[in-house]
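User: Teach me something about this protein's shape.
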Amino acid sequence: MSKLNPQTKRRIQLPDAAFFLAFVCLLAYFIFLAPYGWAGSDEAFYVAEPYRFVQGDCFFTDDWNCGQLFAFALIPLMKLRLALEPSTDGIILSFRYYYVAISAAVTLFIYLRGRRISPWGALFAALFLFVYSPLGIRNMSYNVMGLMSLALVCVLMLTAEKHPAADMYFAGVFVAVLVLNCPFAVAIYIIYALAVLVLTLMRKRGRVTGEGFGGCAFMPRSLMWSAFGAGTLFILFCAFVFSRASLGEILGSFQYVFGDPEHRPEPLTWLIKNVIYCTITSSRLALGCLAACVVLAAAIFFDKRRLLHRKLYLVAAAVLTVVYCLPFVRSNISNELMLPLNILGLTAYVLSEKRQKNIHAHVRSRACVRCLHAPFLKSALSGTVQRRFYMHRRERVLYL
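Assistant: First, the predicted structure itself:
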């Protein structure tokens, strides 16, 4: 490997120093703030679910909540907590610290692996994942674990070069964790497997040479190793479930699980209409911004010299993103902010010259826009200040 010149070394050291300084400050802040509370609802649910399964309950037969699968990933943490302290006093606080520790580890991993592609892109992507938590619940919720798992899968696939077998095996493990937290995410893996199959057929016909699109992560051997990883967790889950209930008992419980009145299955047409409605009403300026996005997309598509004009298009996309985000300044709902962040990211990806090697442009541009938007930090930084500084005595049984 050729030596880096001094200027290159300085460019590499600057994002490293900036990252670790910000990381240490945020980590200290989150540790300090953990005892004072994070979210206004659901936090106890994410601790109660794994606790009941450690106590002897079985999935599906003893619990009819359709979101119960996430608890399997938390059973080791719950056993560790109960081994250190059998009492439930302070158990929620313990899981807050677990969240901070796991989130910090994920942040470090994403930066150290992502910096191979883009040091500054990895810095923004890692730190803002560290700061952000869906709905402001900074505990081990299925939203948080799903987001972390998806980020780890993407980073492992993008950087799977030196040890592709190990990287893809653990990518498969985290795909399984993602599916436990969001069962619909299994569609992502199916699409990935189909993409690998199509690329393999194209290689045999000579239409694709070498690794082609996506690098070694889209080779058949990578799919095999990821399947082994996902299969490992699947086998462990089946062993745990069938050690406590028979197949007949589990199948007989599905009618109650899917009949949960709080999570009724809706027709596909209703879901599509609801997604469209929520997208349009996500912001007071959403409809106008979305219409402008259509115009921008059409201009990029029909412009044969789009690469020469990409700075103009990127500025237009950045302006649209910021304008779309403005109404969220006084909003308590931060999840819908993910919609406008895709405008600049997708535009950057489309306008990159080598798309399969510049997928990080999407991640980097989304992360950079987030730092312009204060409510994105609200869920982790400001939201807790609004909570009560001291808790009532009867709340301390679980929290403190």
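Now, about its shape. The two ends are 53 Å apart (CA to CA). The CA atoms of residues 3 and 9 lie 10 Å apart. If you'd like, I can walk through any region in more detail.
User: That's plenty for now, thanks!
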